[in-house]
Design brief:
single chain, about 220 residues, mainly alpha, 2 domains, two-stranded antiparallel sheet, 6 helices, flat
């Protein structure tokens, strides 16, 4: 857990903020928004104060366990710093979302839907930049039957994935400058392209490489 201390510190701050703000919140707080940015769901103040921190703590526990149960533990010596950086960023985003959500309940007037899309866009950019540092494993990166069958295909696919995720992230960040209808279309295009393009490419790279059979411990290596 010590490698997750930045994210845990952010969650602790969000929990303290939640406890402080709880008596000041209305009975119900907006917790869901539609694609048009309009509120379409509410929760009690207690639920709003507990759910996100609880999810954050569960994620932290999961992040701590994953490196211990990965069959490809040999790879973690190389990409462990990348994993923990992403884990801490995710936990910090959960904490930040909690603060903004409760702040909205206090009347801050923060455009949470657009801010969250921009935050996810930033996460996509970071994820893309870090993809070339990821090594074959069962929990992080672009895991398809073809990338897990060949270390060469894994490397090539993550280089393509880097470009896809960075471009998708920049597109998500740009949605704040468009109307809700246009923003929704851009979000669908960005997420769809980032998710599908590397998967298709991994199959193409695998076929090009000669469809190498899986070899225990990591597949075909250069």
């Amino acid at each position: 857990m010590r490698k997750l201390w930045p994210g845990l510190a952010a969650l602790a701050g969000a929990i303290i903020f939640s406890a402080w703000v709880y008596p000041r919140l209305p009975a119900e707080v907006v917790t869901h928004w539609g694609w048009d940015g309009q509120p379409n769901g509410r929760s009690s103040a207690l639920v709003a104060c507990l759910v996100a921190p609880g999810m954050g703590l569960l994620l932290a526990a999961l992040f701590a366990v994953i490196p211990r149960i990965d069959p490809r533990r040999d790879s973690w010596a190389e990409h462990g710093p990348t994993y923990y950086l992403l884990a801490n960023v995710v936990l910090t985003l959960v904490a930040g979302t909690q603060v903004l959500l409760l702040g909205q309940g206090l009347g801050w007037g923060v455009p949470i839907p657009r801010m969250m899309v921009a935050a996810v866009g930033g996460l996509f950019v970071l994820l893309g930049c870090l993809m070339p540092t990821m090594r074959p494993n069962w929990f992080m990166g672009i895991r398809t039957p073809w990338t897990l069958s060949s270390d060469t295909v894994w490397r090539k696919t993550h280089l393509v994935g880097r470009n896809c995720f960075v471009l998708a992230g920049l597109l998500l960040i740009s949605t704040g400058f468009f109307s809700s209808q246009v923003a929704v279309g851009l979000i669908i295009i960005a997420v769809g392209a980032a998710a599908l393009t590397p998967v298709v490419y991994s199959w193409v790279a695998w076929k090009t490489e000669g469809s190498p059979a899986y070899q225990g411990g990591g597949g075909k290596r250069e």
